[in-house]
Design a protein that fits this description.
The complex is a heterodimer.
Chain A: H1 13-34, E1 36-39, H2 43-58, E2 63-68, H3 72-87, E3 91-97, H4 100-112, E4 119-121, E5 143-144, E6 149-152, H5 157-182, H6 190-209, H7 216-244, H8 248-267, H9 281-284, E7 286-287, E8 290-291, H10 292-310, H11 312-322, H12 324-329, H13 334-360, H14 371-381, H15 393-412, H16 417-442
Parallel strand pairs in A: 2-3, 2-4, 4-5
Antiparallel strand pairs in A: 1-6, 7-8
Helix pairs in contact in A: 1-15, 2-3, 5-10, 5-11, 5-13, 5-14, 5-15, 6-7, 6-8, 6-13, 7-8, 7-13, 10-11, 11-13, 14-15, 14-16, 15-16
Chain B: E1 13-22, E2 25-35, E3 40-45, H1 51-58, E4 66-71, E5 74-76, H2 81-86, E6 89-92, H3 104-108, H4 121-135, H5 150-163, E7 168-172, H6 180-195, E8 199-203, H7 207-213, E9 216-221, E10 224-230, H8 236-244, E11 262-271, E12 275-283, E13 287-292, H9 298-306, E14 313-318, E15 321-323, H10 328-334, E16 336-339, H11 343-347, H12 354-359, E17 367-368, E18 371-372, H13 374-387, H14 404-418, E19 422-426, H15 434-449, E20 453-457, H16 461-467, E21 470-475, E22 478-483, H17 491-499
Parallel strand pairs in B: 3-8, 3-9, 6-7, 7-8, 13-20, 13-21, 16-19, 19-20
Antiparallel strand pairs in B: 1-2, 1-4, 4-5, 9-10, 11-12, 11-14, 14-15, 17-18, 21-22
Helix pairs in contact in B: 4-5, 13-14
Classes of the chains: A alpha/beta, B alpha/beta.
């Protein structure tokens, strides 16, 4: 018997399991090509570059005016210029972090003192101000800016990290959803559980830990409490499904409403911003230049991948989704595994809620709305079949990123938000179509 | 017999050089088949020989990769089931295409309602009744199909085909789920179809039936032609040899071992009406045959022992130890295993690989701290692949793509690895070809020799008589008789107990 007589390229195991990686790469290439643009360096690096240009041209005795806007980025820029110039003995006549009016006043002041401006250190925005030409002694010729370069917006490190950071929460929740969907179930409650975790932890910290003054211990307790509440909601879902045989769709739809209602009730419909600085480390901190949510996501995906591909538990999850009765008759503890899967899904939704709260620095019952659909979409685009029994954890990660990249790419290329929705819907349908064709190719 | 000479008129159906491949399998390699009007052609072959694929090609469900199909000498293309129907081909698959909630007449005319948008209720009901009159059966046309017996549903399928003026009817294992009386009524219908000049292709594993009904036999083996002959030229032995491709000494290779102590004791096992106060023992090295009509409660007994359902009363002891079995998991741990009747829905996870199916009940053995040790798992499975002669291209082969015999062997492998003490076979050879059957019987002998206790549930009386050391017969949930001396027992004796005629 010879293999691969027919079935086409879709039946190729490599394409079947990892074809989505190529889709992701193609999308990356597409959006890179569409967003190639002149880039202007910013921040401290740009500042040092400009300082060097000035020193090369005017020597160490130059008198320099530094102009930036009142933003964090521009302040880094102006500070860096000033430091570099002063280190070489040049004179910083004045540093402006403000508007064009501030710049004019600064120039007036310098000229009134009888000093000459050899150079103006500016960035791409402040260089375009017309204020300099009003002074005969200055003129736009003396402006020095960092040299521009050509690079896609999409591939800027800040953009890619931003995409990863925004995707992390969906991707983390999607781990649990993948497991649930592989068992041929569904969990619609994850979006509401995001809100429930957010509100629970924020209220605990506000009411028991002293809000913004809460200590690190209280922060940890609050976070764990939020996750635990959601895990318990998952246990409830699991018990309803296994012990009473209620369809997962209905059980989790009920939980979705209950958890959302409870969140609004607990928070009295308001946002809860009384959180200490320590709470924000998880969502907004960085470790070795990578945002913490992204690191957390990577660690969780590695664990989940190992569990699903190497461990007995993973085998059981696939077996139950493939044929629950056959799995039961083979001695698989079906109920226990299902209960565990729904609990994990709830807990991960809770974790997602905590990360989101940390990112947005407040507990809010409005968080997580429609997340269930985003997450299910990521799982499905990642190649997991809603029929159960088939799917890959890493596929879900890729699915989440495909959706995120499409969204980001459309934002960068100024696609109308309404059209974005249409595109995302089409992508989801296309992914399911591909899955169907794959299955048809794979069997007789 | 067809009286039309082949030179004078082209045959009703002529398939030439049909080829079809699926990923990993060449299902058909140049198959020829000729069918004349008014002829019953038996299509024989082991499972996986290509019978179903050939039929699906004829039914428009599969497109052949090569070959021609001619009807009345005219080449036809059958790109879809409806094209096949329009060409006068009626196919009755094992799984019926009936909507259970719809009435008989609605099913017969489903998709071909007489007027646009509106159902012509009275006319269609009348036509349905006429069809049943023609066949000579009485089926209530207004009854929902779901309430009919399997045999009645089959007749509805036949009526449905006849209502489309088919010229040939293909029946895929029509007798598999029928009682002997129902089979003989089916044969009456088939003979009537012959009278009307309709060609019939009849697929069955039951050789007795072939001799009774068929005019000519075509045998397939491994997707290719393995022989063709008229029924008069054939013997039972010859037919089996054509199918298997080698000589088989005996159909039931029963080895008799000394039977030892009682191993499994069942006392007063009950569950509602399905199982009523069932008690028996199986001894070491013994094959206990359990038979009865469909619905007699045989499978239910097995499911209770295995913990698939919960018993309402009764005790089960294994080697003198009382067992508390509340789930299959408990039973498996105690050393009991069940090879279910329905492999596809209960025995295997069709979308998973054969290796994963094999490992499922054995993961405790093949894991440390929850991690699966894949190498020992693969090695253990490979031993069974060789020992049981499982034909698979790789361990990653999807279980659903295997033939019935190979599927049963994979199920066997997973339970043999568990080394269970009590092995329950529920219809171990249903839908399995002769060659694989033989191997499964040999394995049963092997298990008996090792001193295991075997419960073999079967509707095939020759099998029950051929392989059991002792036979229990059930009727309506009760054990109605025990036959200790199998060698002198007859099928009639079993049937009497199975229908439990009150004296």
């Amino acid at each position: 018997m010879s293999e691969q007589q027919s079935g086409g390229w879709l039946a190729n195991p490599f394409i079947r399991d990892y074809g989505m990686v190529f889709v992701l790469l193609l999308l990356g290439l597409l959006f890179s090509a569409l967003t190639v643009r002149q880039q202007h360096p910013t921040g401290a690096d740009a500042g040092r570059q400009v300082a060097d240009f000035i020193l090369d041209e005017h020597g160490d005795a130059a008198g320099v005016l530094i102009v930036g806007r009142p933003t964090a980025e521009d302040e880094e820029f102006t500070t860096a210029v000033a430091e570099r110039l002063q280190a070489r003995g040049a004179t910083v006549l004045d540093t402006v972090n403000g508007s064009a009016v501030d710049a004019r006043k600064a120039i007036e002041g310098i000229l009134a003192d009888g000093k000459t401006i050899d150079a103006i250190a500016a960035n791409d925005v402040t260089a375009k101000w017309t204020v300099y030409d009003r002074f005969d002694a200055v003129g736009s010729d003396s402006i020095v800016t960092p040299s521009p370069y050509t690079w896609p917006d999409f591939l800027k490190v800040s953009n890619l990290l931003g995409v990863a950071n925004q995707t992390a929460i969906y991707a983390i929740i999607a781990i649990g959803m993948t497991m649930v969907i592989i068992t041929a179930g569904i969990d619609l409650s994850v979006g509401s559980l995001v809100a429930l975790a957010s509100v629970t932890s924020a209220i605990l910290i506000r009411d028991l830990g002293g809000g913004s003054n809460a200590g690190i211990g209280m922060v940890i307790v609050g976070m764990l409490a939020g996750i635990t509440v959601c895990a318990l909601a998952g246990v409830f879902n699991g018990v309803m499904v296994t012990a009473f045989g209620i369809p997962p769709f209905i059980v989790t739809l009920g939980m979705m409403m209950m958890a959302s209602g409870l969140s609004f009730r607990l928070a009295e419909g308001r946002s809860i911003p009384e959180l200490p600085e320590a709470f924000f480390w998880l969502g907004r901190g960085q470790t070795m230049g990578v945002p913490n949510p992204v690191l957390l996501m990577i660690v969780l995906y590695i664990i989940a991948h190992v569990v699903m591909s190497q461990m007995v538990f993973g085998r059981y999850v696939y077996a139950i989704g493939g044929n629950e009765e056959a799995a039961r008759l083979s001695g698989v503890p079906v109920k226990r595994v299902l209960l565990a899967v729904y609990t994990i899904c709830g807990a991960l939704a809770g974790l997602g809620g905590i990360v989101l709260t940390s990112q947005l620095s407040a507990g809010d019952p409005k968080f997580g709305q429609m997340y269930e659909l985003e997450v299910i979409a990521a799982v499905v685009v990642g190649g997991t079949s809603l029929m159960g029994g088939q799917g890959k954890i890493l596929g879900t990660l890729i699915g989440a990123f495909i959706i995120a990249v499409i969204k980001n790419g459309m934002n960068l290329t100024d696609v109308d938000p309404f059209n974005q929705k249409i595109v995302l819907g089409a992508v989801l349908t296309g992914a399911v179509l591909l899955d169907t064709l794959k299955r048809r190719g794979g069997r007789s | 017999m067809p009286v039309v000479s082949e030179q004078a008129a082209p045959p009703l159906l002529e398939m030439r050089g049909i080829e079809k491949s699926f990923p990993g399998v060449r299902a058909l390699r140049g198959v020829d088949l000729t069918l004349h009007g008014g002829e019953v052609l038996a299509l024989l072959g082991e499972n996986g020989a290509g019978k179903s694929t050939l039929i699906k090609t004829l039914g428009g469900a599969h497109q052949p990769d090569a070959g021609t199909i001619r009807i009345d000498g005219q080449q036809v293309a059958l790109p879809s089931p409806s094209a096949s129907m329009a060409a006068g081909i009626g196919i009755i698959y094992q799984e019926f295409n009936l909507v259970p909630a719809l009435a008989v007449w609605e099913n017969i005319f489903l998709g071909r309602e007489s007027t646009r948008g509106f159902v012509h209720r009275s006319a269609e009901r009348r036509k349905a009744r006429e069809l049943f009159d023609q066949i000579g059966v009485n089926i209530p046309v207004d009854a929902p199909c779901g309430t009919l017996s399997v045999a009645q549903q089959q007749i509805v399928e036949i009526a449905k085909a006849l209502s489309q003026n088919v010229r040939m009817i293909v029946m895929d294992e029509p007798s598999a789920a029928l009682t002997p009386q129902e089979v003989s009524r089916l044969f009456t219908i088939i003979r009537d179809l012959k009278q009307r000049g309709i060609g019939v292709i009849y697929i069955s594993h039951r050789l007795d039936e072939i001799f009774e009904i068929a005019d000519r036999v075509v045998v397939l083996r491994d997707g290719g032609p393995a022989g063709e002959a008229s029924i008069e030229e054939l013997t039972r032995q010859r037919m089996i040899e054509m199918m298997v491709g080698r000589e088989i000494e005996e159909e039931f290779p029963k080895h008799h071992h000394p039977v030892g102590q009682s191993r499994l004791s069942v006392r007063g096992l009950s569950r509602s009406d399905a199982v009523r106060d069932v008690s028996f023992d199986i001894r070491s090295g013994e094959v206990l045959g359990l038979t009865g009509l469909m619905g007699a409660g045989r499978t239910e007994v097995a499911r209770l022992i295995f913990g698939a359902d919960c018993a309402e009363a009764g005790t089960i002891t294994l080697d003198g130890r009382p067992l508390e079995i509340r789930s299959p998991r408990d039973a498996i741990r105690a050393g009991i295993c069940l090879l279910t009747e329905d492999r596809k829905s209960q025995g295997l996870i069709l979308d998973a690989s054969v290796l994963e199916n094999f490992g499922l009940p054995n993961l405790r053995e093949f894991s440390t701290l929850g991690f699966v040790k894949q190498k020992p798992e693969r090695e253990a499975f490979q031993q069974y692949v060789e020992r049981l002669r499982i034909r698979i291209p790789s361990h990653r082969q999807r279980a659903g793509n295997l033939s019935g015999g190979n599927q049963q062997k994979v199920v066997l492998a997973k339970w043999l690895e568990r080394n269970a003490e009590i092995v329950i076979f529920d219809e171990p050879t249903r839908g399995i070809d002769v060659g694989a059957k033989y191997e499964i019987y040999m394995l049963m002998n092997d298990l008996a020799r090792q001193g295991k206790a075997i419960l073999m549930i079967s509707s095939e009386l020759p099998e029950v008589l051929g392989m059991s050391d002792r036979i229990l017969v059930m009727h309506e949930g009760r054990v109605t008789g025990e036959i200790a001396d199998v060698t002198s027992a007859t099928q009639e004796q079993i049937m009497e107990l199975a229908v439990a005629l009150d004296p």
